[in-house]
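INFO batch 0412 | record 1 of 1 | parsing
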Amino acid sequence: MATLLTPKQEFALVSAGALLADYAQRLSDFEVETIALVARRWLDLRAETMITAAEWLVIEPAVATLQDAYRRPTLRRIAA
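INFO prediction complete | emitting tokens
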């Protein structure tokens, strides 16, 4: 069943889009393609964008992986 994107999901998509350029190699091709598919839908439809539970189950951990990859070098610099 598909539902409208929540603000949290919209933010996750925007975050993923910003981080994919530098950290896409951390994800599988399937994860990257799923993010791209839903992001394209969001760019076209904005507030009317629907997402399935299966898509979110792929996107949510993928975004966490991207955010972790972004944070690690920053945390190392702070700890040094």
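INFO post-check: The beta strands are 2-4, 50-52.
INFO record closed
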